[in-house]
Design goal:
The complex is a heterodimer. By secondary structure, chain A is mostly helical. Chain A has a single domain (3-128, 154-298), classed as ABC transporter involved in vitamin B12 uptake, BtuC, CATH 1.10.3470. Helices cover 74% and strands 4% of the residues of chain A. Chain A has helices at 3-8, 10-38, 45-62, 71-106, 111-133, 159-181, 183-193, 195-200, 205-231, 238-253, 258-278, 284-298; strands spanning 138-139, 148-152, 155-158, 233-234. In chain A, the strands form two sheets. Chain A has a two-stranded antiparallel ribbon. Chain A has a two-stranded antiparallel sheet with strand order 2-3. By secondary structure, chain B is of the alpha/beta class. Chain B has two domains: 39-158 and 289-353, Rossmann fold (3-Layer(aba) Sandwich), CATH 3.40.50.2300; 160-283 and 367-381, Rossmann fold. Chain B has helices spanning 2-36, 55-75, 92-104, 117-130, 159-174, 187-200, 218-227, 238-250, 267-272, 295-303, 311-326, 332-340, and strands at 41-48, 80-87, 108-112, 133-136, 152-154, 179-183, 204-209, 231-235, 256-259, 280-283, 343-345, 350-352, 367-372, 375-381. In chain B, strand 9 (256-259), helix 9 (267-272) and strand 10 form a beta-alpha-beta unit. Chain B is globular, with a radius of gyration of 22 Å. The termini of chain B are far apart. Classes of the chains: A mainly alpha, B alpha/beta. The interface between A and B is large, with 38 and 37 residues.
Chain lengths: 313, 385
């Protein structure tokens, strides 16, 4: 137990954990949105994220990205990467819903069928990319050189960390406003509360469901860009572990609850970094799941409870 | 009624299986005698990670073995030899069913493999029980030859020797004052790092363990920074090492990076990009240009690329068995004895096994390679003294 290291650099580890957790949170939103509306755990969401990372690789190599390009090129790369990854992931998510779930939903298939379809689709997509792109780690150019922006009491905060956390918070806030304040958001909440009544009130259920898959996909695409910026690598099975963690984050915060996903993601990131520091890096998953179990023992609906599906003003 | 029917069907099935199995055994016995009649040849199984994230490390060995079989067939058209591939992706749980299948199929008389230590450790008792000789081109964990297993042989130095060489290289060439060691918790990674720790003693200031498929190494990087290490030794494979090194370099860590044969893989510089420049990789494998005879040129001609990691060892491993076929050995038992007493110059080194199945220590060759311009280039041979 390396307490000296943990408490000696507590600030640093917290910042590292928050940055790591932000990516979990963005992916977790996709799980939680779909669960909130459909009561369905979309395990294929991890592959939606994976498609995003490979889209970043593709677009950047098309644009001839190199390590640390000049500022103009950098902005172009970021914008193009974000746009392409968000679009690719968003469309993949919509396609997943169309191909795998819509027909099952029409036939009123029991929930377990959806679950196994989701897992199957997830495997198919990841193996397809494994065959197509190879199974090796794919390096992504370091377009944004890591740079310490400011430093408080020995805690270095870097540009990529700030970008990751701020982007996650902004997108989270945007989504919150979208769901709670706009017409479309009202439709989403209506379907989440009671699909049949919502349909009677003139809400197009299929359109709402496609919309939430699209939203989840867009966020996963954005997370993929942030991941590429920060970690600079991807591979065909990158989604598996990250998806599992994001799903854990969603459950930790209260699945179906948007703010819960953010809280769960950040908490999970911090817990993992603390645990890895305190012991060895291969204990981080153990710590993450111990925290999940303990939280669920005392709050079975997660930290903030399920709010999207509950009747609320 | 229904249950009786099922039971009867089961009995018929079982009887059929036994008949088939008995038939196979007869066939095996037949070929045993055939060996004595001067009939030549046999079937050899080769298993390893021919697909999967670490396949880049193993494919040259498979190609080397295939080349040896091809050349043998050209020279000895009357001697029918066959090499059958079994892909395990390097995973012990996938290698075990393969081992059972090969052990039960009496037409197999020898095995080339395993290529990784984990899969080898899991399967060597099965091959030993079946009396099948194993010749491994690249399974280097020290413990494999410490178990008293009769089947296992390797034409490569073990991690004890490689670890000692790495320690010698660190001490004499890199001369670090503080070393941070990382392993991936596999028998291979942990084994070699244990050797390094033992050899370097207090120069090792701190350590971390990563896990398979990990992608985020913030905690490891913080630890390296706090330790103030000026060299990092990594025991493991490309899949984790490439992202780790990339993130460490991005985080401003300039410590020298030393890996072992698990990183002697074109995927490593490809995955880590510019971050891999200057990294050192040790390997008990010979640079292609140093290999004896026409092997390097033949390989280049056959596959259109230079032999990578363990190409020469795969070739040697196959030839140990092929020489046995040529000498008229074609049963499991004969080949086992043949390999035990093998004594001949190969292309990668002089091949002669000691009682535990290791190639004689004085014959082990270990090289340090450096990543230059994205290529793994030979730097120098490490002398063990």
């Amino acid at each position: 137990m390396n307490f000296d290291e943990l408490f000696g650099h507590l600030g640093q580890h917290t910042v590292d954990g928050l940055a790591k957790g932000s990516i979990y949170a963005l992916v977790a939103l996709g799980y939680t949105l779909v669960y909130g509306v459909l009561k369905l755990i979309n395990f294929a969401h991890s592959e939606v994220f994976m498609v995003g990372t490979f889209t970043v690789v593709g677009v950047w190599s098309l644009l001839g990205a190199t390590d640390s390009p000049p500022l103009g090129t950098l902005l172009l790369l970021l914008a193009a990467g974000l746009l392409a990854a968000a679009l690719a992931s968003g469309l993949t998510a919509v396609a997943v819903e169309r191909i795998a779930y819509r027909r099952l939903r029409r036939m009123n298939a029991p929930p377990l069928i959806f679950l196994i379809t989701a897992i199957g689709l997830s495997l198919v997509m990841s193996e397809a990319f494994g065959l197509w792109q190879g199974r090796l780690v794919v390096g992504i150019p370091t377009v944004l050189e890591r740079d310490v922006v400011f430093s408080i009491g020995g805690t270095d905060v870097t540009n990529t960390q700030i970008i990751t956390v701020v982007a996650a918070l902004v997108m989270m806030a945007g989504l919150d406003v979208f769901i709670n304040r706009t017409r479309y958001g009202r439709g989403v909440r209506a379907v989440a509360q009671n699909p049949d009544t919502a349909a009677l009130m003139g809400v197009n259920k299929d359109r709402v469901i496609a919309l939430i898959f699209l939203l989840g996909g867009l966020l996963a695409g954005a997370a993929a860009l942030l991941y590429a910026l920060r970690y600079g690598n991807t591979r065909f099975n990158v989604g598996f572990l990250l998806g599992l963690k994001a799903f854990t984050a969603a459950v930790l915060g209260g699945i179906g609850n948007l703010r819960g996903a953010l809280l769960g993601g950040l908490l999970l990131g911090v817990v993992e970094v603390y645990a890895a520091t305190l012991t060895q890096s291969n204990w981080e998953d153990v710590a993450a799941f111990v925290v999940l179990v303990v939280v669920l023992l005392f709050r079975p609906t997660g930290l903030l409870g399920e709010s999207l599906g509950r009747a609320r003003a | 009624m229904r249950r009786n029917y099922v039971r009867a069907l089961g009995a018929v099935g079982l009887a059929a299986t036994m008949v088939v199995a008995a038939g196979c055994q007869d066939a095996g016995g037949g070929s045993n005698e055939a060996g004595g009649d001067g009939k030549c040849g046999g079937k050899v199984a080769i298993f390893g990670a021919f697909t999967g994230p670490n396949a880049g490390l193993v494919l040259p060995s498979l190609n080397g073995a295939k080349l040896a079989f091809k050349q043998f067939t050209e020279k000895n058209p009357d001697c029918k030899v066959e090499l059958k591939e079994f892909d395990t992706t390097g995973d012990p749980t996938q290698a075990t069913p393969v081992a059972n299948q090969v052990a039960q199929d009496q037409s197999f008389v020898a095995v080339i493999g395993g290529h990784f230590s984990g899969e080898t450790k899991a399967t060597m008792p099965i091959y030993e029980a079946a009396g099948l000789v194993m010749v491994s081109p690249s399974a280097t964990a020290t413990e494999l030859t410490a178990t008293g297993n009769k089947a296992f042989h390797r034409v490569v130095g073990n991690d004890g020797t490689q670890g000692a060489a790495a320690v010698a290289y660190l001490k004499n060439s890199l001369k670090p004052s503080k070393v941070f060691v990382i392993d991936d918790g596999t028998p291979y990674g942990q084994g070699i790092i244990d050797e390094v720790k033992k050899g370097l003693g207090t120069v090792v200031v701190d350590s971390d363990k990563v896990q398979t498929d990990q992608t985020n190494f913030d905690a490891t990087i913080s630890k390296i920074k706090s330790s103030g290490a000026d060299a990092i030794a990594y025991g493991g494979y490309t899949n984790e090492a490439a992202p780790l090194l990339k993130q460490a370099r991005a985080a401003g860590i300039t410590a020298k990076f030393l890996g072992f044969d698990g990183l002697y893989d074109p995927g490593f510089p490809a995955g880590a990009g510019a971050a891999a420049e200057g990294a050192i990789v040790t390997c008990p494998c010979l640079p292609a240009a140093e290999a004896g005879g026409t092997f390097s040129a033949d390989y280049q001609k056959e596959y259109g690329q230079a032999p990578g990691s363990y190409g020469a060892e795969g070739f040697d491993g196959a030839n140990v068995l092929l020489d046995g076929f040529k000498a008229g050995k074609s049963s499991r038992k004969d080949l086992m004895e043949w390999v035990d007493s093998y004594d001949k110059q190969g292309v990668s080194k002089y091949v002669k096994f000691d009682a535990s199945g290791d190639v004689e220590k004085s014959k082990v060759v270990i090289w340090a390679y450096e990543i230059k311009g994205g290529q793994i280039t030979p730097k120098e041979e490490i002398k063990l003294s």
